[in-house]
Write a structure and sequence with these properties.
Number of helices: 3
Largest sheet: 5 strands, antiparallel
Structural class: alpha+beta
Order of helices and strands: EHEEHEHE
Strand content: 25-35%
Distance between the termini: 35 Å
Number of strands: 5
Radius of gyration: 14 Å
C-alpha cells in the first residue's frame, strides 16, 4: 500500500476563466502564506499551440498536509490539482520561469506574496 504524501508546501493551478472573480480574496481568506505567479499567458505546449492562460500558486503551511486536505481548500477558489512541492525555492523561481530561458519569462515584481517576501523565497 502506497504511503500518503504529506507536505507543508503545495502548489495548484488557477484558470481565470473558471475561477471566481474574487479568487485572490478567497485565497487570502485561508490565512495561509502563498505566492501567486503573474498570469501565464505566453506559454506554449510542445506542439506549438498556446496554453490556456493560468496562474501558479504555492502555499506554505505551518504543518504537514495531505493532498485531500489541500484539495478541499483549493476547491474554494477553483484551484486545479494539488502538487507536493519538493523545493520551495525552485518552485518560487518557476513562478516566473527564471531558470528556463526557453519558456516565456514573467516579471518577478508581479508575483503576489501573501504572508511572506517573494525575494526571500
Amino acid at each position: 500500500m502506497a504511503k500518503e504524501i504529506r507536505s507543508s508546501r503545495w502548489a495548484t493551478l488557477i484558470y481565470p476563466d473558471s475561477a471566481p472573480a474574487d479568487f485572490l480574496d478567497k485565497m487570502k481568506d485561508l490565512k495561509v502564506s502563498f505566492l501567486l505567479s503573474p498570469l501565464h499567458d505566453g506559454d506554449f505546449n510542445k506542439d506549438g499551440t498556446a496554453k490556456k492562460p493560468h496562474y501558479h500558486a504555492m502555499f506554505y503551511f505551518d504543518s504537514l498536509k495531505s493532498r485531500n486536505q489541500v484539495s478541499f481548500m483549493f476547491e474554494q477558489f477553483c484551484g486545479v490539482g494539488a502538487e507536493a512541492v519538493q523545493s520551495a525555492t525552485n518552485y518560487a523561481r518557476y513562478l516566473c520561469h527564471l531558470d528556463d530561458p526557453d519558456k516565456a519569462q514573467y516579471d518577478p515584481t508581479n508575483v503576489i506574496a501573501y504572508g511572506l517576501d517573494y525575494a526571500e523565497c
